[in-house]
Amino acid sequence: MKNDGDTGSLKVTETADGVIFTVHVQPRASRNEICGVQGDELRLRLTAPPVDDAANKLCIELLAKALGVAKSHLALTSGAKSRHKTIRAEGVSKNTVLSLVK
């Protein structure tokens, strides 16, 4: 994991069954990686193009692997056609998400 964009602090909201956080996605990158924090969003680079929902699917896959949960525990709640996406993660603590940027 590369940490080149640490210019802010990741905003993570706890809910009754998990957490909600935002991500900034850069599609068509050379590799899949979590790059750190940009503003209050988790920054991701994805190899998938932003067509046919490919980048959204890869975003969920990358986050599920990094958080150690099943893909079914993550949901894209807003931003399906935007680089700025809101993710809901069930069964995940705030500290687990924050550990992705350390």
Automatic annotation (TrEMBL):
Pfam families: DUF167. It comes from the Bacteria. GO terms for cellular component: cytoplasm. InterPro entries: DUF167, YggU-like_sf. Belongs to the UPF0235 family. PANTHER family: UPF0235 PROTEIN C15ORF40. This is UPF0235 protein Geob_1796. It comes from Geotalea daltonii (strain DSM 22248 / JCM 15807 / FRC-32) (Geobacter daltonii).
